[in-house]
Every structure is written in C-alpha cells, then in structure tokens.
Amino acid sequence: MPKLSVADLDLSGRLVLTRVDFNVPMHQGVITDDSRITATLPTLRYLREHGARTVLCSHLGRPKGKIDLKYTLRPVAEHLERVLDANVGFCPETVGPLANEMASKLEPGGVMLVENLRFQAGEEANDEGFSRQLAELGDVYVNDAFGAAHRAHASTAGVTRFFTEAAAGFLMLRELDYLGRVLAAKEHPFVVILGGAKASDKLPLISHLARTADHLLIGGGMAYTFLRAKGKPIGDSLVQDDFVPAAGDLLKQAKHGQILLPTDHVLEEGTVVHEIPAHGKAMDIGPATRAAFARAIAPARIVFWNGPMGVFERPPLDAGTLAVARAVAGCPGVTVAGGGDSVAALRASGLEDKLTHVSTGGGASLEFLAGDTLPGVAALTEAPSA
Ligand code: ADP
Ligand code: MG
Q1: 22 & 126 share domain
Q2: Residues 133 and 14 occupy one common structural domain
Q3: What is d(CA 258, CA 206) in angstroms, rounded to the nearest whole number?
Q4: Confidence of residue 342 (pLDDT cuts 50, 70, 90)
Q5: Residue that is last in its domain, among 138, 173, 208
Q6: How far apart are CA 245 and CA 251, in angstroms?
Q7: Of the candidates 76, 155, 170, 175, which lies 20 to 30 Å from 261 by C-alpha distance?
Q8: At a CB cut-off of 8 Å and minimum separation 6, what does 68 contact?
Q9: Which ligand has the minimum distance to the alpha carbon of residue 282?
Q10: Is the dihedral of CA 219, 224, 226, 230 positive or negative?
Q11: Same-domain check for residues 95 and 225
C-alpha cells in the first residue's frame, strides 16, 4: 500500500516531529561517514522551504536505555548545521519540558535535534508513555529513517498512534520504491548477488528471492556452506555446519542453472585454485567466477546486490568484490545495493554513483526483501487513493 508522503502534508508553521536515522559511525567524536545525514537532506530542505518547524529525533549506537554521553547526538547536530547550512538547535534532553519549550520557540523553517532516543528505556520498549511524550514534539509526524524501520520502537511505531497524519519522508519513499521494485520482480532478467560472512543471516532473503530471481549469484563466506552442501571440498574455508542442510534444500529447490556458486577461489595466501585443498582457506572468488558473474549481470534489467565476495578489507582479496562492483555499475538496468560492508566496498571503489540506488538500511533492507512487513512502514498513514 502506498504511504502518505511528506509532500501531501500541510506544513506551514506546523511542528513536524521527524524521525531520521543519524546512527552514523563515529571515531573519537568525529563522524567518519555522514552519508546517512546527507541522505535526509532532501526531506529536511523541503520541510524548511515549506515553513515547517522541524524537530528531529534519532538513535545513535546502543546506550541501552541509559544516558551515556559517549553516544550524544550533539556532534551530529553540529555536523548537520554545516551540511544543511542552517542553524540546528540541540536539546540535551530527548523529551520533557525543555524539549517542549525549545520546540514551541521554533520559527517556521527552524530545525532542532533532540538527544539520543535510546537514552530513554521507553524507546526500544515501544512504551506508550514515552511515545506520548515524543508526540508532544509535533503536530504531524514524518519518518525518514528507513534504516530503523524494521524495529517496532516508540519513535518508529508507538508514536504514530498519537498522530492523525504519519507520513514517509523522501528517503523512506525512495527506499520503498527501489526495494519494492526488487521485491515485485516484474523486470527480467532479475539477478540477485549475495555474499558476506554468514549464510544464516541471509537464508530467509535467499529463499524469498529464489522464488522470483532468474539468477542467484552466491559468493563470499556464505558460498562455502553451499559448496559443502553440494559435497565439494572446502578445506578450512568459513562454513556454518548448522546451515548446510538448509543450503542443500535451497539448491535442490532451485531451477537448473539458477544458482551460481564459485567455481574457482583465491586462497588466503593468494593462490588461485579450482578445487580447495585440505586446510586451504578460500577468501575471494577467482577470475573464472568473476567472469561468470559478470556475464550473468550484464543483461539484467534489475539487479540486487548484498554482501562482499571476499575478505575485501584485505587487498588484494578485494578483487572479486571490485569485479562485481564494476559489473553492477556497468549494467544498464536498475541496480540496487544494500548492506553495510558491501556499501562500504562500493563507496571505497568510487562506483557508488553509478548504481541506481544504494540503500541506507542494512538490516531493514534485508528484512524487507525477505518479504517481512517493517513495523516502521506499516505504522505510516496510507496515501489517499487517487
Ligand atoms: P554486508 O554488511 O554487506 O551485509 P556481511 O556483514 O554479511 O556483509 O559480511 C561482510 C564480511 O564478510 C566482511 O567482513 C568480509 O571480510 C567477510 N567475508 C567475505 N568473504 C569471506 C570469506 N570468503 N571468508 C571469510 N570472510 C568473508
Ligand atoms: Mg556487515
């Protein structure tokens, strides 16, 4: 069901409680990657231009319901001032009299950020009282935090009960649009590329997408659980023995030629092999696999990629991941990527802009594509039917 958009709201002079995902990586108080902040700028600029009085809220890290200033959002407010080129008030409390007073003093076009939602135990508990307090910070509600939409927390779910209008921001809409196209699988060939460390994390996603994908290319650490299920030698490569039967079932259910597994491998010390020797550790897909994957990707009309093909943090073991990144970037179809590490690899390779859409939501995008309903999306108001 399409959701109410921020563009459907009457915003002028109204207080807009806006949930964003500013859960950015930080090192010693410095933001090391601000892409989650810049990804919300279209919504924030729109709110300002339309005279909204914007109260932003987000979580950062895992302070577990207690105040822990290691996770304060203050540096995020300062960073946002620079990238938004506007004053951003920071409220050192999340809810309560001070936050309410600062909100009441916001001018049209003004923006403030309240302190980390997870300093309050009520956030993750989806507590009704905390939801009500949060709701005091807005006349209307906008959710642009796709990355947090798979959690039923106060700021993503509970709070919406206190608003007649709970709308999606532009980032949320964009994520739902592109990931929705992947899920709908109306365009073919539809190619899914999966990698990363663990098969267990992604089995629900694989089995869901296997119903619609023309090709499933499996690389990375998870590939060895599948190769073991096929009875291939995997030496000392990463394997999840508990998931070998499930991987075997998936292979059995797959159509002939649908699932492509690595046929050659780069071992830890850099040797390329077609058969993994005893005690050999496969750490990247080999050149023949890269070529086969690239051939499957080239004609695709829609591609979804999640998870690196090897231990990309340790060049030259990034070569397989980079080869796939180049193949996806060169594909003229709709190309969508998601996942923390794969997106980091894409960014490092400078190819991010060549994709149609790079999801900001790791866990949320995986749950969405596994066919699950995201509570933060379900809680939004439906768009009026045209
Ligand atoms: P994403 O964050 O993109 O969803 P994951 O978190 O599932 O990806 O997996 C990323 C990790 O997988 C990386 O740290 C990478 O080193 C590891 N990995 C990839 N291939 C292998 C392999 N062959 N052996 C061991 N680890 C691997
Ligand atoms: Mg990861």
Answers
A1: yes
A2: yes
A3: 12
A4: confident
A5: 173
A6: 10
A7: 175
A8: 119
A9: 1
A10: positive
A11: no
Catalytically active residues are: 36, 198, 340, 363
* Per-residue confidence (pLDDT) for residue 55, from 0 to 100: 98
Query: Domain residues for 155?
Result: 6-173
pLDDT at 386: 64
Residue 321 CA to ligand 2 center (angstroms) comes to 14
Say whether 273 sits in a helix, a strand or coil.
Answer: strand
Pocket test residue of 193, 305, 311, 355 for ligand 1, highest count of atoms within 8 A of CB: 311
Distance 343 CA to ligand 1 centre (A): 12
Q: What does the pLDDT look like over 17-27, one tens digit per residue?
A: 999 999 999 98
Strands 282-285 and 140-143: unpaired
Does any domain span residue 141?
A: yes
> Do 216 and 280 belong together in one domain?
yes
Q: What is the CATH number of the domain that holds 327?
A: 3.40.50.1260
Answering whether pTM is above 0.90, one says: yes
Q: Do both 157 and 240 map to the same domain?
A: no
Q: Give the integer Cα–Cα distance in Å for 80 and 379.
A: 27
Average pLDDT of the residues of the chain: 96
C-alpha torsion sign, points 8, 127, 23, 343:
negative
Which residues have any ligand 1 atom within 6 Å of their CB? 195-197, 201, 220-221, 238, 282-283, 306-308, 310-311, 313, 339-342, 362
Which pLDDT tens digit goes with each residue over 246-292? 999 999 999 999 999 999 999 999 999 999 999 999 999 999 999 99
